[in-house]
Amino acid sequence: MLALSVLAPASASAGDRWAFRAPAARPTDGPVDNINAYKAPEAPYSPACSLHFCVHWVAKGADAPKLTDANGVSDGDGVPDFVERVQGVAEHVHSIENDTLGWREPKSDGRQGGGSGKTDIYLAQIGGELFGYAAPDRGQATQAHRLPRHLHGYLVVDDDYDRSEFPGGTQLGNLKVTIAHEYNHILQFSYDAYQDSWFVEATAVWMEDQVYDGLNDYWRYVRRWTRSYQVPMTVNAIKEYGSAVWNQWLAHRYGRQLIRDAWDRAVETQPGGFSVSAYGSAIDAVGGSSFGRDFARFSRDLAEWRTTTVFPEARAFRDVSRQGSLPVDGSSLRRRLSHTTSQLLRVHVDGGRAVVVRAIAPPETEVGLALVGRVGTERNGDVVSKLRFKPGGGTMSVRLARPGRFDRITAVLINADTSVHGYNAGLFDWNYLRDAVPFVVSARAVR
Questions:
Q1: By CB count within 10 A, which of 61, 127, 175, 324 is most buried?
Q2: What is the pTM of this model?
Q3: Domain count, the chain
């Protein structure tokens, strides 16, 4: 399974900034089979190298940045201000991702690009389609004609982030989140270039917020994510960008190093390239839990995530939508859930000693059932919950006492199963075995 050969969905590459690229020629590699090749030679002072990066640009043509060098008189370096700004942003990103968060230094590209083994950043006119991209270098295949798991690569970012092409933010803000995101892909190449696209993109979007917490560009992905309850979290589709909230949940529970640890373990987990296993290995090592059990806990916490008890920035998020109501007269509802999805059902109870929810799911399926009560408002309330997780399926029951005290009660059905049988190269995804799983759920009020 070769995740890096998968481009992001068309809707993502056209309107959502990112694309995760297959091995590709650099802009300086010439026009043969290279749609992003520079049409002009590099500028006389290109590349300009800082401690960890070399920035490349041209001085004429569509790919040229503004050549203004306001401090050129004082420093005499002939390097445009925008190039120096890119260097400064990139070094800050490195200081957080590598130094503060402890991610491994990227694999060296030897004498390619700047000729010093540093990460190369190319400025190009890519606005309107992409904000930036990361790509592994060509020529890294072995004699067996297979790409190794650890690769080096380069970045391409826009040459000016002009507001006419990028109306959604400032030039500097767009540059910051692009480099934070795309440089994380460069680090990912070094750990394991064969991982699932959802793991790749959810991590890179999460990293944007670690480097530039105040920009919060990822919020727009989360808005779409909350409406995609029927789409599995592990699918290679547009939902994967908003799945940064899964990494937020893990980081809140275990610490930010858990995400790095998942990448560090990825190349050793089986089956190769199955990102669920990478997460599962890291979760087990630090918390003695599992991917499925923690997905059930995560799904429970989504029901009232705007209280910020678990998701610190969720006050700005959209409330996760309910998929109907569950009557408390003992009558049954039937729902079907695909793997790594959940459904939220509103439970209306006006009083009594307790409310009890019961669900039945097929055997040999990792499933969960939660009952979540909120006292107070969405943003300032207190949450009480009960969760039942069953790795083998069957009957589950949860109970909340004194339901009349709650302003909202939600039942959460959870299909946490990630069983697979091989990889489907045509779909660029694994063959998951527990989709459209039937649940029978009922509730009753205890008077």
A1: 175
A2: 0.93
A3: 2
